[in-house]
Design goal:
With 556 residues, the protein is α/β, with parallel strands linked by helices. It is 36% helix and 21% strand. InterPro entries: C-N_Hydrolase, C-N_Hydrolase_sf, Gln-dep_NAD_synthase, NAD/GMP_synthase, NAD_synthase, Rossmann-like_a/b/a_fold.
Length: 556
C-alpha cells in the first residue's frame, strides 16, 4: 500500500504565527481529505523564515510555541496524519549557574494531538543572505519516524547539502529523506538544488522529498517548485514555481517490495527569463500586500527601466492599483512623452503629467547668486531628479501608495543615480537586475503574457532607442558610462565572481575602463547604503550579500 504524502508549499507572513498556523491547518485538512498521511511544511513555517532579530525576543518564541500547539490540537482528530512543521525552539539552559539562551531552527512531527519528535537543524548557513548562527545553536540529534510503514528521515534545508546529516538518518533506518526548506531564489538556484538533491539521493540510495517555501519577504523571494527525486537521482515529482500549492505524491515500493519509489505530477520546465520575471512579480506583490499598501506609483520617463518596472507592477497588482506619473523637464524629448503615454494606455494604468520646469527654473533663480559665473553641471541635473522625487513622495504621502524606484543594478553599482532623486522611494524593483538583462526581460515580456494583462506592453521604441537620463541636451548614458555590454560584463566579474582588476584586465578588458568601473563601485558605497530595499535575483545583490565598508583604502 502506497503512502500518500503532501508538500504544503505555502506563502507565510513573518510573525503572523496565528495566521500561519491556520494556513497549515487548512492545507493539512485538504491534504488529508485527498488521502495524505504525511504533510510537509517549509522551514520555519510557523513564524516565516526571515524573522531576523525577532528570534531574539522571548515573546516571539512563546508565540511560536503556542502556534505549534494550536496546529497539533486542531488536527488531533485526523487519525494517522503526521504533519511536519518548522519553528524556532529553545529556552534557558543552566550552564555553571548562568542562564544561557539557546535556540534551535527546529521541526516537529505532529500526530493526533501530540508532538512525536522535534528535530533541530545541524548545519546552520552563515553566508550570502543567511545569518543563522546569530540566532540558533546547531542541533546534534537525528529524527527518523514511521508513517504507513515507511521510515522517514527528517532534515532541514542546509542539512541536505552536507554528507553527515543524511548519512546518519540513513544509518538510523531512513528509507526516505524529507527535507523542509526556505532557500532564497536567485537565477540558476533551482538547477543547483536539483543537482545537489539528486546527488544526495544517489549517494545514500534513498529518495529525497524537497519541500520548499514560496513567497516574498522584504528583499528575498522563495520560488517554491518543490520536488522529489528517486534513489537513482531521477526527477519523480515537481510542484509549480512561484505559487502556493497543496502538492500530492505517492511513495510506494518497487517491484521487489524493497526500495521506496516516489511518483507524482511534474510541472513543466521553466526558462531563466520566466523565473526572473515571476520572482520580480512575486516580490512586488508580497511586499505591497503583506505591508498593507493600497497601491504603487512610479515615475514613467519613457525609458526602458521605468517601462519594465511598470510592466512588473501591473502583472503583480493589476492596473487599478498602479499609477504612472510623467514629469517632463526642458530636456525631455517629445518621443519620451509620447512613448510614456502609449505604454500607460497599453497597460491601462492611471497616467498623469506634471511638468517640473517651473520648479527647476525657481531653483536655478534661487541659487543664481551662489552659482554666479559657474557652468551648469551635474548639480543642475540632480536638481531635476530631486524635484521629481519630491513630487512622487508628495503623492505617496497624500494617497498612501508606495513609490517604486526604477534604477537598475548597473546604475546602482556605478552611482549613476541621484540621492534623494531617482533613488527616492520605498521599494527598488530592479536594483539587482543589470541593464543588459533589463533589455532582455523587456523583449521577453513583449513576447509573453504570463499573468493575462496583455502581450506587448512596452512600445518597441522604448527598447530600441539609446538610454538617456534626459537631464541635459542630447544626453545618453554612454556619455558617462562604458557601453552596457562591456560594463555589465565587468560588473559580473567584479561583483559576482570576486575577480580583481588585474584578473579582469587579463580576460581582455581595457585597463582604463576596468579601473574606472572598480573606482565607481568603490566610491558609491555610501549611495547604495541609502537606497530602498529591493528584490534579490542574483547570488550577490546589493544588500545582505554585499557588506563592504564605506570608508576604506583597499584597492583591487
Amino acid at each position: 500500500m502506497a503512502l500518500t504524502l503532501c508538500i504544503a508549499q505555502l506563502d507565510f507572513i513573518v510573525g503572523d504565527t496565528a495566521g500561519n498556523a491556520q494556513k497549515i491547518i487548512e492545507a493539512s485538512r485538504a491534504a488529508y481529505a485527498q488521502g495524505a498521511r504525511l504533510v510537509l511544511t517549509p522551514e520555519l513555517s510557523i513564524c516565516g523564515y526571515a524573522a531576523e532579530d525577532l528570534f531574539l525576543r522571548p515573546a516571539f518564541i512563546a508565540s511560536c510555541d503556542d502556534a505549534v500547539k494550536t496546529v497539533a490540537r486542531e488536527l488531533a482528530g485526523l487519525k494517522g496524519l503526521h504533519v511536519v512543521v518548522g519553528h524556532p525552539f529553545g529556552g534557558d539552559i543552566r550552564s555553571k549557574s548562568v542562564a544561557v539562551q539557546r535556540r534551535f531552527n527546529a521541526a516537529s512531527v505532529l500526530s493526533e494531538g501530540r508532538v512525536l519528535e522535534t528535530y533541530s537543524k545541524r548545519e546552520l548557513p552563515n553566508y550570502q543572505v543567511f545569518d543563522e548562527r546569530r540566532y540558533f545553536t546547531p542541533g546534534q540529534g537525528i529524527c527518523v519516524f514511521q508513517v504507513e510503514g515507511v521510515n522517514v528521515g527528517l532534515l532541514i534545508c542546509e542539512d541536505a547539502w552536507f554528507d553527515e546529516p543524511g548519512l546518519l538518518a540513513r544509518e538510523a533506518g531512513a528509507e526516505l529523506l524529507a527535507v523542509i526548506n526556505a532557500s532564497p531564489f536567485h537565477v540558476g538556484k533551482g538547477v543547483e538544488r536539483f543537482a545537489r538533491m539528486a546527488g544526495r539521493a544517489q549517494a545514500l540510495d534513498v529518495p529525497v522529498v524537497y519541500a520548499h517555501l514560496v513567497g516574498g519577504q522584504d528583499e528575498v523571494v522563495f520560488d517554491g517548485a518543490s520536488f522529489a527525486v528517486n534513489a537513482d537521482g531521477t526527477l519523480a515529482a515537481r510542484a509549480p514555481g512561484f505559487r502556493e500549492d497543496v502538492f500530492m505524491m505517492q511513495a510506494g515500493r518497487d517491484a521487489a517490495g524493497g526500495k521506496v519509489v516516489l511518483r507524482g505530477a511534474i510541472a513543466p520546465d521553466r526558462t531563466p527569463e520566466a523565473d526572473l520575471w515571476d520572482a520580480l512579480v512575486l516580490g512586488v506583490r508580497d511586499y505591497i500586500g503583506k505591508n498593507g499598501f493600497p497601491g504603487v506609483l512610479l515615475g514613467l520617463s519613457g525609458g526602458i527601466d521605468s517601462a519594465l518596472v511598470l510592466a512588473v507592477a501591473v502583472d503583480a497588482l493589476g492596473a487599478d492599483r498602479v499609477r504612472a506619473v510623467m514629469m517632463p523637464s526642458p530636456y525631455t524629448a517629445g518621443i519620451s512623452t509620447t512613448d510614456a503615454r502609449e505604454m500607460a494606455r497599453r497597460v491601462g494604468v492611471r497616467y498623469d503629467e506634471i511638468s517640473i520646469s517651473p520648479q527647476f527654473e525657481a531653483f536655478k533663480a534661487s541659487l543664481a547668486g551662489e552659482f554666479k559665473g559657474l557652468p551648469e553641471d551635474t548639480t543642475e541635473e540632480n536638481i531635476q531628479a530631486r524635484i521629481r522625487g519630491v513630487f512622487l513622495m508628495a503623492l505617496s504621502n497624500k494617497f498612501g501608495s508606495i513609490v517604486l524606484t526604477t534604477g537598475n543594478k548597473s546604475e546602482m553599482a556605478t552611482g549613476y543615480c541621484t540621492l534623494y532623486g531617482d533613488m527616492a522611494g520605498g521599494f527598488a524593483v530592479i536594483k539587482d537586475v543589470l541593464k543588459t538583462t533589463v533589455f532582455d526581460l523587456a523583449r521577453w515580456r513583449n513576447l509573453h503574457d504570463p499573468y493575462g494583462t496583455g502581450a506587448n506592453p512596452i512600445p518597441e521604441r522604448i527598447i530600441t532607442r539609446p538610454p538617456s537620463a534626459e537631464l541635459r541636451p542630447d544626453q545618453t548614458d554612454q556619455d558617462c558610462l562604458p557601453p552596457y555590454e562591456v560594463l555589465d560584463a565587468i560588473l559580473a566579474r567584479y561583483m559576482e565572481e570576486d575577480q580583481g582588476v588585474e584578473e579582469i584586465i587579463a580576460a581582455g578588458f581595457e585597463r582604463a575602463i576596468v579601473e574606472r568601473v572598480a573606482r565607481l563601485i568603490r566610491i558609491n558605497e555610501y549611495k547604495r547604503r541609502q537606497a530602498p530595499v529591493g528584490i534579490r535575483v542574483t547570488h550577490r545583490s546589493f544588500g545582505k550579500d554585499w557588506r563592504y565598508p564605506i570608508t576604506g583604502k583597499f584597492r583591487a
